[in-house]
Amino acid sequence: MSTPEMIIVETHGATGLIRLNRPAALNALCDQLMQELGAALLAFDADPAIAAIVLTGNEKAFAAGADIKEMKHRTYPAVILDDFIGNHWETVLRVKKPVIAAVAGFALGGGCELAMMCDMIIAADTAKFGQPEINLGVIPGAGGTQRLTRAVGKSKAMEMILTARMMDAAEAERANLVTRVVPADQLIAEAMKVAGKLATLSPIALATAKTAVNRAYEQTLTEGVKTERSLFLALFGTPDQIEGMNAFAEKRKPTFRG
Ligand code: CAA
């Protein structure tokens, strides 16, 4: 992978940290940035030394959405032939390791959608979430109408998507869009703490748990429980299950290997 220009990639122990880094454009998500982000996510996912990934922006913006100045030149044939959004935006959904979005400032449009594609969102008290695409004469295109609605319910999602109203961090926590809100100066430390906890757990159990929770969005309750049951039973074939249960019985800390 060539050196990325629009993201900063760091490794902290077993945590991969990716910072979106286009501050002059509030981290607007252009093609180059999305390609660099996708490559960095897949590289961390393939690295056995990495257990979890934190994705963040800067204090002013996680990301203010798709790059409008780049997008305004797109034509219908081009967006179809280039598979705009489909080709680079959803790489995070392919990552098997847990991905935590650490959001400060604006998470708008595609920025909000990118955060919602992560496994959990930890918000700074400065975070603002919104789907303002209606102001541009379009609608959300990277899952916003679906994931926001599932997260916060129809009424709030409708209001945000139809009127472009932003939600502050406190409201986002009340509405279950984010797992919790922390002071802005503690955002990265808090996200790294969660990632550090994940690094002590079984990688195969974590990947399986991700799969099972994600199925809750895609299946009926009965089908989802069936999926969960077969994934749960499959874990009885793993050394980490033996280690985890033996360690409990022997009153010691488990050492998981994946
Ligand atoms: N695309 C391109 N450039 C953007 C941008 C975006 N989404 N958001 C901000 N910028 C640029 C601005 O053009 C400005 O650049 P210049 O200094 O060169 O003029 C710079 O970032 C700083 O922005 P502002 O001066 O506007 O900062 P502000 O603090 O006054 O306002 C804001 C902040 C309310 C977030 C405002 O920038 C804004 O409304 N941005 C657009 C938000 C938006 O509409 N997002 C949805 C995009 S569409 C989408 O995402 C589709 C999808 O579903 C995939």
What is the strand and helix layout of this fold?
Layout (H helix, E strand, L loop, with lengths): L6 E6 L2 E6 L10 H16 L5 E5 L4 E3 L4 H4 L4 H6 L17 E5 L2 E3 L1 H8 L2 E5 L3 E3 L13 H9 L1 H10 L3 E2 H6 L5 E3 L4 H12 L4 H13 L5 H14 L4 H11 L9
Parallel strand pairs: 2-3, 3-5, 4-6, 5-7, 6-8, 7-10
Antiparallel strand pairs: 1-2, 8-9
Helix pairs in contact: 5-6, 9-10
The site of acetoacetyl-coenzyme A (CAA) has 23 residues, from helix 2, strand 6 and helix 4.
General description of the model:
By secondary structure, the protein is of the alpha/beta class. It is built from eleven helices and ten strands. The strands form two sheets. A six-stranded mixed beta sheet has the order 1-2-3-5-7-10, with helices on both faces. It has a four-stranded mixed beta sheet with strand order 4-6-8-9. Helix 1 links the parallel strand 2 and strand 3. The structure holds acetoacetyl-coenzyme A (CAA). Acetoacetyl-coenzyme A (CAA) is lined by residues 25-26, 28, 64-69, 85, 106, 108-110, 113, 132-133, 135-136, 140-142, 144. Acetoacetyl-coenzyme A binds next to helix 2, strand 6 and helix 4.
Keywords:
single chain; 258 residues; alpha/beta; four-stranded mixed sheet; 11 helices; 42% helix; binds acetoacetyl-coenzyme A
Give the overall shape, derived from the CA principal axes.
Answer: globular
Low-confidence blocks of residues: none
Multimeric status of the protein: single chain
Rg over C-alpha atoms, rounded to the nearest angstrom = 19 Å
Q: How far is it from the N-terminal to the C-terminal residue, by CA?
A: 26 Å
Report the bound ligands by name, code or SMILES. Answer: acetoacetyl-coenzyme A
User: Structural class from helices and strands?
Assistant: alpha/beta
For the biggest β-sheet, the strand order reads 1-2-3-5-7-10
The arrangement of helices and strands along the chain is EEHEEHHEEHEEHHEHEHHHH
| Whole-number mean pLDDT | 97
Q: What composes the largest sheet?
A: 6 strands, mixed
